[in-house]
Amino acid sequence: MESFGSYIRRLRTEKGLNQTELAAKVKLDSGSMSKVENDKKHLDEEKLILLAKALDIDTEIMKKQYLSDQFAKESVKYKVEESRTIYELAESKTKYYLNNNVKQGTLKI
Fold first, then answer.
1. Domain count of the chain?
2. Whole-prediction pTM
3. Dist CA 20 CA 33 (whole Å)
4. What is the pLDDT of residue 109?
């Protein structure tokens, strides 16, 4: 298991890219890319899509890697003891929001 930042570093290295090269493809500066790889920078959906394309990874896989990492960090931050229950609840809420989104148009979160 690895953090999102470690995951990106590994993929970048496997592709033979340095941080500056990857940063340019993702429209970030090299300092920001360093923060991504050190788990100190949050990314928006646009950057995740660019990152997936630059590393030749499916966009949905990239989003899941990022969001699961963020969710796990928040669980640790809030000292949640029984994380499995929270993951199940999050899955139910995701289905609720997706269903709500279909019924009402764009969901604003």
1. 1
2. 0.84
3. 8
4. 54
